[in-house]
Amino acid sequence: MRKLLKIEWQKIKTYKTFWLVISLYFVFLLSGIMLAELIFNAMIDDLSKNSPFPLPHVSFYTFPDIWHNITYFASIRFVVIFPAVLVIILVCNEFSFKTSRQNILNGLSRTDFVTSKLILVTVLSFFILLVIMISSLILGIIHTDEITVQSFFHKFEFLGGFFIQMLTLLVFSLFIAFMIRSTALSIAVFTFYVIIMEPILVMILKIPNFQPNTVGRYFPINNALNIVEYPSVTGLIKTLGFRLQENVVFQDIFLSIGYTLLFCFLIYFSMRKRDI
Amino acid sequence: MSLTSILSVEGITKRFGKITAVDNLSLNLEQGYIYGLLGPNGSGKTTTLGIILDMIRADAGRYQWFGQPLTKEARKKIGVVFETPQFYPYLTAIQNLRLIATIKDASPETLDELLRLVNLFDRRNSKFITYSLGMKQRLSIAAALIGDPQIMILDEPTNGLDPQGISDIRELIKKINTRGITILLASHLLDEVQKVCTHVTVLQHGKKLFDGKVHDVLAIDDAIEVNADRPDMLRSVLEENENVNKVLTENKLLLVVTKPGYPVRSLHEYLISKGIIVTHLAVRKRSLEKHFLDLLKKEEK
Ligand SMILES: Nc1ncnc2c1ncn2[C@@H]1O[C@H](COP(=O)(O)OP(=O)(O)O)[C@@H](O)[C@H]1O
Ligand SMILES: [Mg+2]
For residue A275, which atom of ligand 1 is closest to its CA? Predict the structure, then answer.
């Protein structure tokens, strides 16, 4: 275990692409949330003009909403594609450099090789979670006037939900990479499925009787991304009387874990059967 | 199975669709020798190596390493050098070797010595991607030596190299063998097998055509050209000698095939003792090359 972790670390620590893509991910997610707040407040200003009462500006960064909002922005399809593509690059590299073969010839079993990649995505998910936690903490402390224990820990569970969500996504990208093995094709298939095919399918399934929740809700990516739903601004919700997601739904989490285990099994199975 | 058996292969077969890439091949490698796997391109050398290293699943047959099935512990005692070196291009030479040492549970302390052995110590901090093919291939050899292997397998290690590169690699292989490491070298170059190997297995269309000691293969059919002042008598005198296997006529010369180990000098003395004055005497080494070509021709028919 420690050895496999050490091996993966030796592979990425001086790999510039890795650090570049992971930094881009954080830049996109943080600028996404800032931009969203700006746009939101601009819209509120607009609405206020015709409103009988003034609408308050919102902050995405106050406790406890920050936990929810930042994890939401960290997992919208266009942003989450960064760490997923990164995982695809790391795995397909092994096949295109033929270092997968070299690793196995040097004494990693095929199972060890897959395990090392699972460790990689788990640690990567933790790392992302950690960076998100720290940035939320800083942003939250700056923007919240009065921090109470209750406001701080309420919605803290979204971090856990986010971890499962990220892990499921990365294991899915791992699955695509292990099956296809070519970087370009894997990225294309992953992007097509996550950004185009699944959303369209989900939409089509809703059409016949305009149900909000159809079987599309349970597709792997859709399910995972639903763990953390639309961002929330408690102040505004109270004002307008909206009801948005307050809790992580455990059914989504369990299903995501189920998908993760299934993908892991398929990866192990194919590595045992296929030539390397 | 002898105690020093490194690898034994029994009847391995591999088909790719209609092509039988390896056909009922058996091999046995013993410790300390340099084995050549010789055959033209497409004769199944790489596939054979792929099978015994468990990268390709065989359709039939068995193999054992050190008398046991191939485990990941056994792999650490097998160094492998492929035709195309396989490293992380963005890591430096030393980083690549350290990674392999981690995988093999080997101490990283020997790495500097290995880099010196393959003459890359000065370039150890350059990224692999900046290396020339010759340097990459030498790095592969260094990598294969991490963790003190008992055997080193090389697949066409000199392909694409310049003459200096080729000779560097061949010298290295011999030097490594003097450390007691058994070598299995796949090559389509006869000359290479002849220069480097002690044993050879000739493959064609995945079938074993021939195997034996390179030295024996060379010695089997060495012919001695002889001419004398009395050609008529020469033939019968030669045929009387019990050390002579065959006498052939070629133009105005006689070609004599003697028993292995019978010195030319003795033949000369024998002829003198029979009162024959030799006017021409030359050893015609039938090179492995001719053998190889003959074998291939025979197979073609
Ligand atoms: N993965 C593969 N798929 C289909 N045919 C293959 C594959 N690998 C090798 N072959 C075929 O098997 C035969 C033996 O190939 P190979 O073992 O590479 O020979 P060599 O290494 O002696 O040049 C060739 O006819 C080759 O085309
Ligand atoms: Mg080959």
Answer: 1
Task: Count up the domains in chain B and report the number.
Answer: 2
B264 and B167 within one domain: no
Residues B166 and B227 both lie in one domain:
no
Do A275 and B90 lie within an 8 Å CB cutoff?
Answer: no
* CA atoms of A34 and B137, how far apart (whole Å): 51
- The C-alpha angle B219, B220, B224, rounded to 5 degrees, equals 75
Using CA atoms, how far residue A9 sits from A94, A257, B63, in Å, is 14, 25, 35
CATH label of the domain that carries residue B262: 3.30.70.100
> Which residue range forms the structural domain that includes residue B199?
5-218
Contact B55 CB / ligand 1 (< 6 Å): no
- Chain B residue whose CA is closest to A276: B55
pLDDT, one tens digit per residue, over B208-261 is 987 888 876 644 456 788 888 887 788 888 888 888 887 877 777 888 888 877
**B292 within some domain:** no
Q: Single out the residue of B291, B288, B264, B289 nearest to residue B278, CA to CA.
A: B264
B45 close to ligand 1 (CB < 6 Angstrom): yes
Give the pLDDT of residue B1. 44
Residue B53 to residue A7, Cβ atoms within 8 A: no
Number of independent structural domains in chain A: 1
Query: Nearest CA to CA, how far is B173 from chain A (Å)?
Result: 19
User: Is residue B120 located within the same domain as residue B44?
Assistant: yes
- Let me know whether B233 and B118 are in one domain: no
Distance CA A34, CA B255 (A): 94
B141 shares its domain with B281: no
Tokens of A255: 């299903």
pLDDT, tens digit, for every residue of B120-174?
A: 999 999 999 999 999 999 999 999 999 999 999 999 999 989 999 999 999 999 9
Q: Which residues 237-276 of B are in CB contact (within 8 Å) with A? A: none
Compare A127 and A217 and report the one with higher pLDDT: A127
